[in-house]
Amino acid sequence: MRERLESLRTEALQEIQSATEMELIKELKVKYLGKKGELTAVLRGMGSLSAEERPVIGGLANEVRAALETAFAQKSESLETEELEAKLQSETIDVTLPGASLEPGSIHPLHSVIEQIEDIFIGMGFEIAEGPEVELDHYNFEMLNLPKDHPARDMQDSFYITPEILLRTHTSSVQGRTLLAKEGEVPVRIIMPGKVYRRDDDDATHSHQFTQIEGLVVDRGVSMGELKGVLLQLIQKMFGPDTEVRLRPSYFPFTEPSVEVDIYHPEKGWLEILGAGMVHPRVLEKAGYDSERYTGFAFGLGVERVAMLKYDIDDIRHLYNNDLRFLRQFKSV
Fold first, then answer.
1. pTM, full prediction
2. CA–CA distances in Å: residue 41 to residues 4, 30, 37, 124
3. Contact call for residues 287 and 179 (beta carbons, < 8 A)
């Protein structure tokens, strides 16, 4: 039995030393020291020993158990240390590397222009009015002196949903809604920013969806001179105090007389910037205003056109493509 215990100790110590995983150490511990392990099996044979041999073999068995438990503890500690070092090595963070940078955002150039224009008009006593983008034909056309058979409807190729519902072609549709809500009260001084839609081929200067800001003033004694003063204030604040402006006769069914407004660009010459005019008497009457007592003016500008001129943008599609290389240029705007 002595030889068996010595052999068991030698065999177990060799297996413990050659183990490379904690799972294997657990298996060896069960194999040698478990209730059904090899050491327990050897000790079961002590009943056949003489009274003189039992204490000697018992002492040896305790030495073997102690040696194996010490070997298991040391090997377990060694493997745990190795596993920890390997994990730390695999998860090492180089603190000298630069951290991930968070790029600050900025206002989109279109929104920047809208906010600038709103600030200018609020400073002149205007209010901001809004309306639905899915609009009734009644407000989009008929309230603006464009009956069903009016040829000017061909100027605005529209997205119709039903014969009476369409995507608005201009924010002028908000005019009728606002005037009706006012129930004949004056003064009316509003601007109407928002998206509009027309059946157009997208290219460098056109888009099927774009942004407009319409303006409307209705009161007693409103004149063409006041319209010119308001537009001059807008243009010179947007493009600089020395910007030259001219008004050319034009035609719009909802204003009479009507004008196109141009600004002078040092390199490109005269450029059309917006349309305007005195509110047509029929538009006032449809909204419940006495055109003999009240007059008004209206104007409409494309925000994209203003942005392109102000920031020297050569393609309207840049404003919609969300290209960061383009948008980063406007962080300070």
1. 0.69
2. 11, 13, 6, 102
3. yes
Contact status, residue 18 vs residue 10, Cβ threshold 8 Å: no
**Residue 185 marked as a ligand binder:** no
Q: Please tell me the distance from the alpha carbon of residue 326 to that of residue 333, in angstroms, as a whole number.
A: 13
pLDDT of residue 245: 94
Strand stretches in the chain, DSSP E: 127-128, 134-136, 160-162, 165-167, 188-197, 209-219, 245-252, 255-265, 269-279, 295-302
C-alpha to C-alpha distance for 206 and 183, rounded to whole angstroms: 37
23/21 Cα distance (integer angstroms): 5
- The count of other CB atoms within 10 Å of the CB of residue 176 is 23
- pLDDT score for 49: 65
Query: Using CA of residue 199, residue 204, residue 209, residue 212, what is the dihedral sign?
Result: negative
* Backbone phi, psi, residue 46, to 5°: -70, -15
Nearest to 272 by CA among 239, 233, 243, 306: 306
Kindly list the averaged pLDDT for each block of 10 residues, start to end, along the chain of length 333: 74 80 81 74 67 70 79 83 83 78 85 96 96 95 88 76 93 94 94 93 90 96 95 94 94 94 91 95 95 96 94 92 88 70
